[in-house]
UniProtKB/TrEMBL annotation:
It comes from Candidatus Scybalocola faecigallinarum. It comes from the Bacteria. GO terms for molecular function: DNA-binding transcription factor activity; sequence-specific DNA binding. SMART domains: HTH_ARAC. This is Helix-turn-helix domain-containing protein. It holds the Pfam family AraC_binding.
Length: 278
């Protein structure tokens, strides 16, 4: 299972796509998925939700989440920073939904039309009013969406600790990275770190580090600027053999086969490919 912390830019993005499948990750953005066709399993901190046509799935900042494709999908995906609108920032920073899944939310015609408009808004060169249009649709969407959510107080201390650990690992994944090293560097009890990984990620620290290194290796392999051996050592593996073994475990194929597959299908992750209307 791949897992990583996405350091996203502080900008808004909206798109439609096919085949929503993405490994475990977290970021500082709010993420909204509107399912138009097909079915996807969405996970937040290892809890599974079935996203079916008409449903909306919302992820608040720094929640560990991932998707597993179930059948051919057509979905809308929005990503935006909490500070995009001051009116909502305190909600995203202090609350979390009791359930991220809103069944049948797209039956609300205003909600559906505003979300579609945001994903279809053309990026015309010289269109100085595009951001204003986005914000207009954004306020309409969030007004309709938030009234459908039941919110509860977040646990900022635990989230901050997880974020701190993941950021440290992201910065040092190519070096020796043992549990004891992280605990010593961050002055956090190693048993507490193990507890957090078990509770929030449903995996051990060593599994996480290997999956993080494989995630970074995938990005390097897609660029095709380094040999597979160079990639293996560059992301922190001690040998090509251990790299291959880990890569097959988390990706389901060898690094060479992965590189060939990406060359055939293109470099962009399937979750972010544009949806082609038949």
């Amino acid at each position: 299972m791949r897992f990583f912390y996405e350091d996203k830019s502080r900008t808004f993005s909206a798109r439609q796509g096919a085949r929503l499948e993405f490994g475990p990750h977290l970021h500082g953005h709010v993420e909204i998925v509107g399912m138009l066709k097909g079915c996807t399993s969405g996970f937040i901190e290892s809890r599974k939700y079935e996203i079916t046509p008409g449903d909306v799935f919302i992820v608040f900042p720094n929640q560990i989440h991932y998707y597993e494709s179930r059948m051919d999908e057509h979905f809308m995906l929005l990503l935006f920073p909490p500070e995009m609108a001051d009116e909502f920032a305190h909600i995203f920073n202090e609350k979390i939904p009791q359930s991220p899944l809103i069944k049948g939310a797209l039956e609300d015609e205003l909600l559906l039309s505003s979300m579609k408009a945001m994903t279809e808004l053309p990026d015309r060169e010289g269109n100085v009013f595009r951001e204003m249009e986005q914000k207009g649709y954004f306020f309409l969407l969030m007004g309709r969406l938030l009234e459908k959510l039941k919110l509860e107080a977040a646990s900022p201390g635990e989230l901050a600790t997880v974020n701190l650990i993941l950021n440290y690992c992201m910065s040092h994944y190519s070096e020796r990275l043992l549990l004891e090293d992280v605990a010593s560097a961050l002055h956090i009890n190693k048993y507490y770190i193990s507890h957090l990984f078990s509770q929030k990620l449903d995996m051990g620290f060593g599994d996480y580090v290997r999956s993080l290194r494989v995630s970074q290796a995938c990005r390097l392999l897609e660029k095709r600027s380094m040999s597979i051996t160079e990639v293996a050592y560059g992301v922190g593996f001690s040998s090509s053999r251990t790299f291959n073994r880990a890569f097959i475990k988390y990706v389901g194929m060898t690094p060479r086969d992965y590189q060939k597959k990406q060359a055939r299908e293109g470099l962009m992750h399937p979750a972010f490919q544009d949806y082609d209307t038949p």
